[in-house]
Amino acid sequence: MKKESPQTIFLEKLNNSSLFLTYQDAFELATGYRLSLCKKLPKAEPGDLSVSVPVGRTFPLDLLARPLDGSGCIGEHLKVCTRGLLEAFARQLGEESNRAMLESGSAATGAVVRAKDFIHGNIGTKIQLDDMASAAGTSSFQLCRIFKRDTGITMTEFISRKRVQRAKRLLRDPYRQIAEIADHVGFTSLSQFSRNFSRYAGESPTEFRQRLKELEHCDLAAS
User: Fold this and answer.
1) Which H/E stretch holds residue 6?
2) Where do the domains of the chain lie?
3) Whole-angstrom distance, CA of residue 91 vs CA of residue 55
4) Residue 114: CA count within 13 A, CB half-sphere
5) What is the C-alpha separation between 189 and 199, in angstroms, rounded?
6) Pairing mode, strands 33-38 and 62-67
7) Higher pLDDT, residue 17 or 133
């Protein structure tokens, strides 16, 4: 029997998660569109709407909304509103997906769990593979092999995702400079930080901060 890839297993878990199932039902009732997650978008049909889920290039994922009646005949205003909801959910789904990737699952070996703990405790420093392998109690070669096998991503990607996740929390403080945040979470340069942030968050640090600011203004206006 062919072993399923980590990407396929991850997609299946995401499709069956309470977050996706709850939003799928609510989205259908509110818009008349059915949501689905796709590794590769099917042939487009009238009325289809799709957006990328910011999970990263190693896990290309799209959120597809397809009208239940198959006609796709809705007003432009409703289409814009529906796409806005779709994009908002894609961002939320990306956040949850990245968190799930970074958690130490029960299926991971002890060495992988120890390596993740080491990364978590040293995320703001330059992490050396030999030091991580020593903390995990195995060789560098063996750790690289089992880490990719258990998580579906390389240690380099895991570290970058972890740094981006921490940076998102720090970016909520409007008084912290982006360059300061980049250094605090362990990136060696602002360009490296921006490149990795865009890769795994689907937007630049500046765009992320601006979106948070706009959401805060919306909340204040509604209250």
Assistant:
1) helix 6-15
2) 6-102, 110-218
3) 9
4) 13
5) 16
6) antiparallel
7) 133
Name the DSSP letter for residue 75.
-
Residue type, 96: E
Q: How far apart are CA 74 and CA 5, in angstroms?
A: 38
Q: Which two tokens stand for residue 145?
A: 């092999």
Closest to 97 in 3D by CA, of 31, 6, 190: 6
Q: Are the C-beta atoms of 185 and 123 separated by less than 8 Å?
A: yes
CB of 50 within 8 A of CB of 70? no
Task: Please list, in sequence order, all residues whose beta carbon lies within 8 angstroms of the beta carbon of residue 88, skipping any fewer than 6 positions away.
Answer: none
Tell me: the pLDDT tens digits for 107-148? 568 899 999 999 999 999 999 999 999 999 999 999 999 998
Which helix or strand (DSSP H or E) is residue 110 part of? Answer: helix 110-121
Tell me whether residue 7 is exposed, middle or buried, using C-beta atoms within 10 angstroms of its C-beta: 0 to 12, 13 to 18, 19 or more.
middle
Question: Where is average pLDDT lowest: 30-39, 64-73, 145-154?
Answer: 64-73
- For the entire predicted model, the pTM comes to 0.74
Single out the residue of 143, 126, 125, 121 nearest to residue 134, CA to CA.
143
Confidence of residue 56 (pLDDT cuts 50, 70, 90): confident
Beta strand segments in the chain, E: 33-38, 49-52, 62-67
For a pLDDT cut of 70, what percent of the chain falls above it?
86
Q: Between 161 and 40, whose confidence is greater?
A: 161
pLDDT exceeds 90 at position 17: no
Helix ranges restricted to H, 122-154:
129-136, 140-151
Is 1.10.10.60 the CATH classification of the domain at 110-218?
yes
